[in-house]
Amino acid sequence: MIGRKMMGENMSRPGAGTGANTGIERRNFLKFSVAASGGLLIGFRFPGISMLASAQQALATAFMPNAFVRIGTDERVTVIVNHSEMGQGVYTSLPMLLAEELDADWTKVGFEPAPVDPKYNHPAFGMQMTGGSSSVWSGLEQFRQAGAAARAMLVAAAAQQWNVDATSCRAESGAVFHGSNDKLTYGQLVGAAAKLTPPAHVQLKDPKTFKLIGKPIKRLDTPEKLNGKAVFGIDVKLLGMLTAVIARPPIFGAKMKSFDDSRARSMPGVRKIVAVPAGVAVIADSFWQAKMARDALRVEWDEGSMASFSTAQMMQDFRERAKSPGTSVRKDGDAAAALSNAAKKIEAVYEAPYLSHLMMEPLNCVVDLRADSCEVWTGSQFQTVDRANAAKVAGLPNEKVQLHTTFLGGGFGRRANPQSDFVVEAVHVAKAAGAPVKVIWTREDDMAGGWYRPAFLHAIEGGVDASGNAIGWRSRSVGQSIMTGTPFAAMMQGKDYDPASVEGIDDLPYAIPNVTVESHQAEVNVPVQWLRSVGHSHTAFAVECFVDELASLAQKDPYQFRRELLLKQPRYLGVLDLAAQKAGWDKPLPNGMGRGIAVHFAFGSYSAHVAEVSVTDGKIRVHRMVCAIDCGQYVNPGIIAAQTEGGAIFGASAALFQELTFENGRLQQTNFHTFPVMRMNECPQIETYIVENNEKPGGIGEPGVPCAAPAIANAVFAVTGKRIRRLPIRLTEAV
Amino acid sequence: MLGFSVNGKRVDLDVDPSTPLLWVIREHLGLTGTKYGCGMAQCGACTVHINGEAVRSCVAPASRASGKAVTTIEGLSPDLSNPLQRAWLEEDVPQCGYCQSGQLMSAAVLLREKPSPTDDDIDEAMTGNICRCGTYPRIRRAIHRAAEMVAKGGAQ
Ligand code: FES
Ligand code: FES
User: Fold this and answer.
1) For chain A, what percent of residues have pLDDT higher than 70?
2) Are strands A175-178 and A69-71 parallel, antiparallel or unpaired?
3) Nearest residue (CA) to ligand 2, atom 4
4) CB of B25 sitting under 6 A from ligand 1
5) Mean pLDDT, chain A, integer
6) For chain A, is the Cβ count within 10 Å smaller at the N or the C terminus?
7) How much is the pLDDT for A13?
8) pTM
9) Per residue in A501-543, pLDDT tens?
10) Does the Cβ of B131 fall within 6 Å of ligand 2?
11) Ligand 2 pocket check for B85: Cβ under 6 Å
């Protein structure tokens, strides 16, 4: 996912538009195109489009006042969603915004993924994409205005029919009313409303009158996820479609020298074996045949410069690097002087490994390439980029390429690849296949395929004065940039460091008078990119563990120590206090158990966790996690709780289990047994508490992740008296 | 020829019997609700029932189904009337949803064998099913809720 700050610090952010008279651009009536349903498809339905058949019937008269909503004579309200559903609930929260202003009957509301079109661009990031925990706050204005515009036209249409003034009519639950007798449903008004011009200005509701926004409305996509009907990329099936599995380089940067397919060629179902830029593709009738033949290939690789790469050596290099000053990121006061005058000082080096996104659904992509057109089906987080990259390889103009967004079996940033790796390679394979083709990555392919969360090292020095006040902080971060060398380098805004490497340290909120933050950019030929919570996934670990170490140095309680340093930061303080209070911070725990606390700001939201941990026979068990979240005004508290829980589990999985390591250029982990994910029997009880306020809405998909690791690590210290300075947490390494 | 029943329907297929049942179900039978996650019995996304027993279909050769009754998520109940599906709806369990077919199929065997499962029973039965999105707390609640529904007479 894309860090908010990387995208430009001054990006405009739509406010809640509370009852304001806001301008809305006149949009052309969008022609409803049935082409979107793809005549070729068998057994494929778009997510949430059980109403497609009826929508087609209603085609002639469907009312589509703008790009985001279509209303049928059958009363169905279909919200066209320009963000991808990867579990974070956008197919519910964004329709809620629109339906609220439309005064729709919620039981008639459905969703449909948007096609790729500039009108569906992210209002802040200028392209169609999902990331940075930004879908709801960025869609707030768009979806509410779209709903309000549609409602205004339906009301105007009804007023016309009754020959009354529109202001004397009211809309409610999918119908327009006048007086006590006149009622016309939206379905009945479709024809008349479609003839009207969209209003230039719309009045948005007063939040006090909200019926949907702010309520824990159940997700619209749940039913089809319980009976096998939901269509993920891997489920797409086209007539005559073949399946491909690719033999991929075992080392980053390795090039294929030659391959021997004498055995593979004659295996059942194999249609073609071809070299493609990604490796050697085996194209067969079915996945298993393609995979068996792929495994039977003998490929010779020119291993290249990464053949001796090892993460152990790399981290050693990082440690050396941290000994010298880096690029200055932040400088308040004089940290060097403060540290040399400190009564007590401490230094600590924190390390975090490469991580795989490990979406439950491994990467895959379906391509139907014709002479003058190309259709792509995949779970994309990066529609604009993916379509453009597909078009380039297909040799077609962008408009000739259609990209259909399916459900995503998890994204976590991996499906927003700057090079569209999984899409581009599928177009290459389709060129060779001469038929529609689905490329499937095995779990092992997916894990070894790169684009990881970069490994990072943060070396921090801090000091307190004689009365235990923190007076100095100097941190140096070492790691790869996820921006340099990508088309997104512009997001570095001319800075000589990557903001994503230091986000979460550069805005250190604690009242420490002398702060120096430095960054070293490491050049390593391992492809890296954003992973759920991006830089915060490692910076929060370093910062919040070090603040705990400072508290020990000052001989203060870690919660109270933070409080004192956050007195001028009310929203940090708010979540910190809430988590501590709900967790019963001061209540004693049984022997062998301890609590740890952490607080962090990311993606516009404040979050604090308290973890309760036991350590028995060298085994760590997390029993309870209490999470407080302040994401400002919110849309669906049920989804916020789910994302916060899921984020805590995501962060705890990384903290307790996950590490990618390389030896001789080869990844040592292959599948869930060597790169584990938290399981049911390891999952703590999780409680989420949401701060109620009227602040600007922040993100929710990522803010739940960063605090998990430091809260658990600090709790381990509370039990064992030993500090954790490397992830994943290993008691044998505690100091 | 390989013959077995799927969700009550008899099928006869001309497939290599060593092909994992998962891919036969997904590709030959077109039942794509059963998912691929790991291919090595690590994640549970591919869980189906063979004669009522939960099986990781990614490592089960199709021949293992020969002459038997296979149930997939599509056969659990297409109209969402199964108490587990109802409980999953009430707890709003799924996030991305990719693991949920496997979760439900594992939970179905648990509930049949232990109509009022304890948390430990849930741990034991569900630990083979990974959810990367972290829906475990809701799955746990939903299983307890489904058990209550069944106990109150919502026949399974
Ligand atoms: S796909 Fe069978 S257990 Fe993971
Ligand atoms: S809901 Fe996404 S993996 Fe379980």
Assistant:
1) 92
2) unpaired
3) B131
4) no
5) 91
6) C
7) 30
8) 0.93
9) 999 999 999 999 999 999 999 999 999 999 999 999 999 999 9
10) yes
11) no
* pLDDT, mean of residues A139-164: 96
DSSP H/E element including A687: strand A685-690
All residues at 6 or more sequence positions from A37 whose CB lies less than 8 Å from its CB, including other chains:
A46, A49, A52, A56
Residue A457 has a pLDDT of 98
CB atoms < 10 A from the CB of B43, how many? 29
- pLDDT at residue A486, as a whole number: 80
**Which residues of chain A lie closer than 8 angstroms to B137, CB-CB?**
645, 683, 685-686
Cα B71 vs. chain centroid, distance in angstroms? 8
Closest B-chain CA to A671: B38
Mark yes or no for CB contact B100/A287 under 8 Å: no
For A16, A101, A135, A177, A203, the CA distances from A97, given in Å and listed in that order, are: 11, 7, 12, 22, 14
Q: Which two tokens stand for residue A725?
A: 């300075």
- Among candidates A407, A410, A672 on the partner chain, residue whose Cβ is nearest the Cβ of B133: A410
Beta carbons within 10 angstroms of residue A191's beta carbon:
14
Regions of chain B short of the pLDDT cut 50: 156
Q: Does A43 score more than 70 pLDDT?
A: no
- Please tell me the predicted confidence (pLDDT) of residue B12: 97
Q: Please list, residue by residue across A279-317, b when 16 or more beta carbons sit within 10 angstroms of its beta carbon and e when fewer do.
A: bbbbbbebbbbbbbbbebbebebebeebbebebeebbee
Q: What is the pLDDT of residues A186-226, one digit of tens each?
A: 999 999 999 999 999 999 999 999 999 999 999 999 999 99
Residue B123: list chain A partners with CB under 8 A.
Answer: 680-681
Domains of chain A with bracketed CATH = 62-227 (3.30.365.10), 233-304+363-440 (3.30.365.10), 311-355+452-733 (3.30.365.10)
- Beta bridge partners of residue B50, listed in sequence order: B53, B70
Give the pLDDT score at A87: 97
User: B83-91 and B136-151 helices cross at what angle (nearest 10)?
Assistant: 130
Contact B104, B88 (CB under 8 A): yes
Residue A407 and residue B88: Cα distance in Å, rounded?
19
Give φ, ψ of A491 to 5 degrees.
-70, -10
- The answer to whether the CB of A638 is under 6 A from ligand 2 is no
How far is C-alpha B103 from the chain's CA centre?
6
User: What are A51-72's pLDDT values in tens digits?
Assistant: 344 444 445 579 999 999 999 9
pLDDT digits (tens, 9 = 90+) for A548-595: 999 999 999 999 999 999 999 999 999 999 999 999 999 999 999 999
DSSP H or E segment with residue A283: strand A279-284
- Name all domains of chain B by residue range, CATH numbers in brackets: 2-75 (3.10.20.30), 83-151 (1.10.150.120)
The DSSP result for chain B, as a single string, is -EEEEETTEEEEE-S-TTSBHHHIIIIIS--TTS--S-SSSSS-TTEEEETTEEEETTTSBGGGGTTSEEE-HHHH-TTS-SHHHHHHHHHT--SS-TTHHHHHHHHHHHHHH-SS--HHHHHHHHTT---TT--HHHHHHHHHHHHHHHHTT---
Output Rg (C-alpha) for chain A, integer angstroms.
27
Amino acid at A683: C
Tell me, what's the pLDDT at A714?
A: 98
Task: For residue B37, give the ligand 1 atom closest to its CA.
Answer: 1
Residue A414 in contact with residue A490, Cβ under 8 Å? no
Instruction: Report phi then psi at B50, rounded to 5.
Output: -115, 120
Helix crossing, B119-126 with B136-151: angle to 10°? 120
Find tokens 């593979």 and name the residue.
A264
Inter-residue contact A686 to A645 (CB < 8 Å): yes
